[in-house]
Each structure stands twice: as structure tokens, then as C-alpha cells.
Amino acid sequence: MKKIQAPISVVTRDTNQIASKTDNIYESVHIIAQRANQIAQQLKEELHEKLRDFSMPHDNLEEVFENKEQIEISKYYERLPKPTAIAIEEFLQDKLMWRLREEEKKEHEEL
Questions:
Q1: Hey, how many other C-beta atoms are within 10 angstroms of the C-beta on 43?
Q2: How far apart are CA 86 and CA 34, in angstroms?
Q3: Does the reported pTM lie above 0.70?
Q4: pLDDT of residue 1
Q5: How far is CA 60 from the centre of its chain?
Q6: Which ranges form a coiled coil (predicted)?
Q7: In a 3-state reduction of DSSP, which class is residue 42?
Q8: What pLDDT, on the 0 to 100 scale, is given for residue 40?
Q9: How many Å is the Cα radius of gyration of the chain?
């Protein structure tokens, strides 16, 4: 997992600090949301890759097997900080790079 120390519980954030990175709170939130989606996708792929080792070759709805290792892996991922918390920390620590699309740049220049 990432080396970012993100809080597991809810933390009150200073919106001025978040907005100061882009001079626009909505743009900052959009950047954080995009990064959170990337992190969530990476975690999901990583989890599915690890759980693939435990998958049964045939699905039988009548039989349910408990696998302690599989349960531990799932619990580990449940205890990780949420993707949004990780993305916010990366954003505030200046560990994210972003750029505006060309169309958006032109609109901003015209204003």
C-alpha cells in the first residue's frame, strides 16, 4: 500500500487550504475525486488478484466454504484508509500532478 499516512476516521479539513492549491475549491475537489477513483480501482484490482488464489474452479451455491486466509485478506483491505482520505493527503502534501485539458485552458484564458 502507499506510504501516505491517511487517517482512518473522519477528519475536519480546512477548505481554504484545499482551495489554495488551485485557487478554486471545485477544481481541487475534482482533482481529489479523480485520484480517489484511481486509488479505489488499484485497491480493487489488488484485492481481486489476491483473492483469485482462493477461488473455486466451480461455483456451487449449495456449498459455502470459509477460508480463514481469504477472510484475513478481506479484513486487511477493510481496515485500510479510504481512497478519498489517501487522495486528500496526497493532494495536501503536493504529491499529485495534474494539468488542465486544452479546452479548459482556453476558457480560463478568455475569462
A1: 17
A2: 12
A3: yes
A4: 46
A5: 33
A6: none
A7: helix
A8: 96
A9: 19
Residue with cell 479523480: 34
Look up cell 489517501; give the residue: 86
Check residue 109 and give its pLDDT.
65
For residue 6, give the nearest of 37, 44, 36, 48 by alpha carbon: 36
Inter-residue contact 83 to 36 (CB < 8 Å):
yes
Between CA 102 and CA 51 the distance in angstroms is 41
| 44 backbone dihedrals φ, ψ, rounded to 5° | -65, -45
User: What phi and psi values does residue 66 have, to the nearest 5 degrees?
Assistant: -100, 125
Judge contact between 8 and 15, C-beta under 8 A.
no
What are the sequence ranges of the domains in the chain?
A: 16-54+66-110
Answer whether 40's CB lies under 8 Å from 10's CB: no
Residue that has been written with the C-alpha cell 499516512 in this structure: 5
